[in-house]
Amino acid sequence: MDKHNKLFIKGMVCNRCISLLNKELSRLGLQVQSITLGEVTLAENQPAINDTLLKTMLQENGFDLLRDKNELLTLQIKQLVEEGIKTQAETGTPVKFSKLISQGLNKSYDSLSTFFSYSAGVTLEKYIILRRIDKVKELLVYTDKTLTDIAYELGYSSIAHLSRQLKEVSGFNATHYKKIRKEKLAAAANNGDIAL
């Protein structure tokens, strides 16, 4: 086996996927060197991987191996979008996704955008909006951040722009997600669980 054996995994969408896959790969006797959304690097000197067991485990957990170069490119674009959103959330600095993606893959943004639309069935711009709104919903439900804080962190030009986009994409406004947070906190308090 190569010193850095990489597996490209389809269907990983969040940190829980990373945690689950790390546990399942360990259960198969594989040592994970690093794991990110869509990509696993196994430690050196691994025993031979039983492809059937690996594929079965992945499919049972809603994942699959990527072997096609077009699927891999789509995954790489999605990873760069996630990286951009994470950078915005951590630094509060707006990210120019077209520059991030084109530089990250060393290809023109226009060609990557056209490819992504064909491959993923949604425009790259729409995908970025959907992923940013998913992050907004997550922050509204699992943190006590205000819409103002979130708009700043995720690089929105204004709170009004974020509010419009949230309503347009999800069908709900920020108040709806804050209500979900209150309900979760109340349920956790009633059950003696640790608060969100």
UniProtKB/TrEMBL annotation:
Pfam families: HTH_18. It comes from Chitinophaga defluvii. SUPFAM superfamilies: Homeodomain-like. It comes from the Bacteria. Coiled coil: none annotated. This is AraC family transcriptional regulator. Gene3D superfamilies: Homeodomain-like (1.10.10.60). The keyword Transcription applies. Residues 75-180 form the HTH araC/xylS-type domain. Keywords: DNA-binding, Transcription, Transcription regulation.
